[in-house]
Amino acid sequence: MKRRILYLLKMASKNIFYGIMIQCVVFTGLLASEGSAQSVSIDKAIVKIDKKSWTLSEIISELESATEYRFVFADEVMQEEMLISTDNKKQSVKRILTDVAHDTGLRFRQINNNIYISKSENQENFLVQQYEQMTTVTGKVTSRDDTEGLPGVNVVIKGTTQGTVTDISGNYSIDVPGPNAILVFSSVGYIREEVVVGNRSVINFTMAPDVTALEEIVVIGYGQRERKDLTGAISQIGAEEISKQIAMSPEFAMQGRMSGVFVSNPGSSPTARPNIRIRGEGTLGFNDPLYVIDGIPLYEGGASSTAGRTQDQRGPINVFALINPNDIETITVLKDASATAIYGVRAANGVVLITTKRGKSGKAKVDVSTNFGIQNVPRNYDMVNTQDYLMLSQEALDNRNFTPPVQWRNLFDPNANEFLGNSSTYTQDWQQAALTQNAKIQDYSVNISGGNESSTYSVGVGYSSQENAVHFSKFDRYSLSINSDHKVTNWLRVGETYRFIYAENSERPSAGNLGSNAAPWQPLYDNTANGLLGYARTNAVVGGANRPAGFGPATQNNFRALGDLNYNERQLIRNIGALYAEATFLKNFRIRGSYSFDYSNNRREVFEDIRTGLFQVAQGGQLLTGQGNTYGVRNNENINLVGELLIGYNKSINNHNFDIIANVMDQRVYWNVSQQAIIANSPLSTWDQRRIEEGWFPTDKNNHLERSITGLLGYMGRLSYNYDRKYYLDATIRRDGSSRFGPGYKWGTFPSFAAAWRVSQESFMQGIAGLSDFKIRAGWGVIGNQETAEFAFLSQINVNPKAAFGPSINGNSTVNYAAGLLNFPTANLSWETSTTTNIGFDSEWFGGKLRFTAEYYHRLTDGILQNIPIPQVVGIVPSPVLNLAEVSNQGFEIEAFYNTKIGELGLNAGFNLTTVRNRVESIYNNVPQGSERNRVEVGHPMNFFWGFTTAGIFQTQEEVNAWKAENNHIGAQATKAPGDVIYVDIARPATSQENVSGANWQIFEPNGIIDDFDRRYIGKQIPGYYGGISLGADYKRFDLNLFFRYTGDVQREFSLPYLGIQVGGTNYHANSLNRWTPDNPSNTVPRAIQQDPSRNNIFSDRFVWDAGFLRFQNFQLGYTIAPNTLQRMGMSNARVFIMGQNLFVLSPFPDLDPENITTPRVFTIGANISF
Amino acid sequence: MKKISIILLFFVSLFIHSACNEDTVNIDPIGYTEAGFFQGDSDFQWAVNGIYHSLGGYYAFLGDPNRALMAISMLPSDDLTTRANWGEENFVALQGGIERISRFYHQSYRMIQRCNTVLQYIEERGETAYVDQQLKNFHKGEALFLRSWVNFMLWNVFETAPLVTERIARLDGSEFPPNSTGTQLLDQAITDLAEAANLLPVSWPNASLGRVTKNSAHGLRGKALVFRGTVTNNLADFSAAITDFNAVSGRSLVPNYAHNFVVEHENNSESLFEYQANNSLGNANPFVERDDFAVIGEMGAYWGAFDARPAWANERWYAGTQSLFNAYNAADPRRSAVFRPNPVFNGTNPNIAKYVQGPFIQGPQGPGNGIFVNNPRILRLADVMLLHAEAIIRTGGDLNQALGLINAVRTRARNSVTPSSAEPADRVIADATTMLEWVFEERRLELAVEEGHRWWDLCRRHRAGEIDLKDLNFSSINPDLNFQNHNIRYPLPNNEVIQNPNLAQNPNY
Question: What is this model's ipTM?
Answer without folding.
Answer: 0.87
